[in-house]
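Feature request, filed as a ticket because there's no other form

It would be nice if the structure record came with a short human-readable summary line next to the C-alpha cells. Right now we just get the raw output. Example of a typical job, pasted below so the devs can see what we mean:
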Amino acid sequence: MGTTTPPRTLAEALRARGDESLAGLLRARPDLLSPVPNDITQLATRAGTRASVVRALEHLDRFALQTAEALAVAPDPAPYETLLALLTGDGQDDGEGRDDADAAITAALPGALATLREQALVWGEDARLHLVRTARELLSPSPQHPSPTGLGPTVAEATAGMSPGRLQEILAAAGLPATHDPVSAVTALAELFTDRTRMAELLDTAPVEALSVLDRLVWGPPYGEVTPNPAPPVQWLRDRGLLLPVSTRTVVLPREAALHLRAGRAHRLPEPVPPVLVAAAERDPQAVDRAAAGQGFMALSTVEELLKLWDNGGPAILRAGGLSVRELKRTATSLDVSEPVAAFWVELAYAAGLLASDGETDERYAPTPASDEWLDLTAPDRWTHLATAWLAATRTAGLIGGTDAKGRALSALGPDLDRSPAPEVRRRVLALFASLPPGTAPDPQTLLARLRWERPLRSTAPGGTSGQGEATDLRSRIALWTVNEAELLGITGRGALSSQARALLEEGPTEAASRLAPLLPEPLDHVLLQADLTAVAPGPLERPLADMLSVLADVESKGGATVYRFTPGSVRRALDAGQAAADLHAFLTTHSRTPVPQPLSYLIDDVARRHGHLRIGAASAYVRCDDEAVLNEILADKRSATLRLRRLAPTVLAAQTDPASLLDGLREMGYAPAAESAEGDVLITRAGARRTPPRTPPVPVPEGPPVPDSTLLAAAVRAVRAGDTAARAVQRDTPDSPAATAGSLPRTTPADTLATVQAAAMTGAAVWIGYVNADGAASQRVIAPVKVEGGFVTAYDHTADAVRTYPLHRITGVAELADEQAD
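Raw output as currently delivered:
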C-alpha cells in the first residue's frame, strides 16, 4: 500500500503503522497479545471483538470517550470538521463562556483523537474518520441501550418500515412538498430538521406545551410513552415528525431534530480538561514526614501485636472461610481499635504473608514462618514490606461488613474480597497526591472528580454492594478507602504524601527505607520500674527485651511511652514459659534504669513459691499435691463443683474434664497449678510455639493481562510483521506453478521442494513454504535456507525472527517470492 493511499480497512491502517506505534497499541491493549496474533489481519480482527473493545473503552478518559460517542452518532466516515462541530456546536448558542469552552475543546480534540487512533478504536485520515464498528454498536442509541449522548436514532432509522401514506401525512403537516418516493420523503424530512432557518420557522408555530415536551426529551433519554389518544401538544409533534413512533406506546425524538435544539452539540457539557485537584491544606513537609513516620511506627506495633495475639494459634476459620464477627470484635478489642480498622490490619498481615491458615483439621489462623523473618528486619524494612504488599493487594478490606451480589455477608479473610481495580486505583490516588507540592493535602471531592474523569466507564463497575443492597461506585469507594488506609499505614501524614512514600513510589523500597530510618526512634535496651508494679518504656524497645517484657507483664497503656503492669497472672505466665524466679530478678536488674522495687520482688517470689505446687495431668485429668490440706481446701470450695473432682489418693484428685480446662479452672480459683507430662515433668509453654507450614502470600487477582515489557513487545511486533509478510506472500508465477492466492499454502512435489530450497541456500534467497507441525497445524513461513542435509533444512525464519530447522517431509510446498517482496 502506498504511503499516500488512504486505508480502506482497520487492518490496512495498522499495517501502515510503524513498529513503535504497533508496540504502543499492544501496550495499551495487552489482551490483544493473548496469544500473539499470527499477522496484522488477525490483530485487527481481535481488536474489533466486543470484549476487547469494551475493555479499551473502559480505559478511556472522559473527553476521549465523549469524542468516541460523538463519532458514534456522526455519519460513517465523518470528517474532522463534523466531529469538531458535534463537540463545540454550530455557534448558535453564544452563551457565557462558550468561546473559552470551544477553544479548550478545539485544543484537546487532536489529543483525544490520537488516543483513539493509538488504541485502534478509530482509523482513517482526518477527512474520513472511522469508528470501529463494534464501538459504534456499543455507543449507538437503541431503546434497550440509550446512547450516552442522549441522542436517538436518525430520521431514516426511526422511519424504517413506516408506511408511505404516513410519511406523506408528515410531509404535509410539516409544509413539505409531497413525494411518492419514500427515500425522498425521508431525505426531505431530515433536511428540514437540519436547516436552521426552516426548523426555526416550524418551531415558532409550535404550541408552548409542545416546546416543553421537546425540552424534556432534548438531552435524553429521547424516548417517551404516549397514550392511544395523546394530548394536543404531543399530537402536534407527532404530526410533523418531531416525535416518531418506535412502538404503539413509545415515541422518540429523532437525532436531527435533537441536534437542532442542542445547537449542534452531541454533549450538554463536554469536558476536554480534567478537573483541577484542589489543595485542602498546606503543611510543613517535615511535619508531614514526622507524622507519617509516627503513624508508620504505630502500624508496625499494631501488626506485631496482632501476630503475638495469634502466636499460639489464632481464631478458628468459618466453614465458608474467614473470621466470624465475634472473633473480629475480639481482635479489635485486643488491638484497641474499631472493627473496620482491625479488619484492615488483619487483611494487611494476610496480604503480606504474615498470617495464614494452619491447614489442620481444626483449622485456625496463625503466624507463618515468614512472620519470624519479618520481625527480624529493621523497622524501615518492615514498613516497606507492609506498604509494598498493600499497594499490590487486590483484597479490599473496606468491603468487610457488606454483602456480595448474592446478599451473602463479606467477612475478614473470607472469599470474594478481591477487586481487580484496587491496585491501579491506589497507585493512581497516590500519584495524584504526588502531583501536588510537598506537604499539600488534596481535597477528597476534587480527587474523586478527577478519578471519575479519568475512567468514567469504570466508575460504576460491579464490585459488591453496601449493607443496604444498593449498587455503589466501586472506584470512588476504593479511592476513599485508600485515603484512610494510607493515613493508617503512614503513607500519608496529616493528609499529605510523605517523602518516604514518594521514594517508595518513584525509587523503590530501598530508598524509602533510607528516608524513613532517621525519622524513627532508636530502640531502647532499658525500662523504668516503678513502685506501683508498673514499668515505663520511654520508647520502642529492642526485640528481645520487648518479647520478654510482653510475657512478664501486661500492657496497660500505649502512646509515646508504653506502660506495663506486673500482676500475679503475668508473672505466672513467665514462669510457665520456663523462667525461674532468679532469672526474672536478673532480667529486671539488668534492664531497669531504676532499682527494682521491693513489692515487685515480693510478687515474683510469692508467685514462684506457689507455682507448680499443684500438678495437673491426664486421667482424663488429675491434680496431685504433696500437701493434703491444699487438696482438702479445693474439694471443699464450691467453685470446684464444675470440675467434678474426686480423691484417688491422699495426694491425688481426679477430674472429669480435660487438663487445659482443669488448669484454667484452678487458676480462676486463685491457685497457681502447673501442667506436667506423662513422666511427671513440668510442661513449659513457650511463646511463638505455633506456626503454619510455609505459606506464600495471596496472589493478587489481575484485572486483565499484564502489561508486557519492552522486550516482549518488540518480539511480538517482529512476529506479527513477519507473519503478515508470510500471510501476504505472493509466489512467483512459473509455467509449472501458477501464482497462488495470498494466504494459501504452496504445494510442490518432494523433489521440487528439495531442489528449490537447495538453490535458495546456494543463492541466499528467501522462499515461501507451507509447513505442518507435529500437532497437524498448518502455517506458512518466509525462510532463507542456510543448509540442506539429512532430510532437514536449516534456515532463518523471517516469521519467527529466529534460525530454525525444518524436516523436509513436513514442508507441503515451496515457492519463490515475487521480486518486489524478495527485495
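Something like this underneath would help us a lot:
DSSP finds 34 helices and 25 strands in the chain.
The first helix runs from residue 10 to 15.
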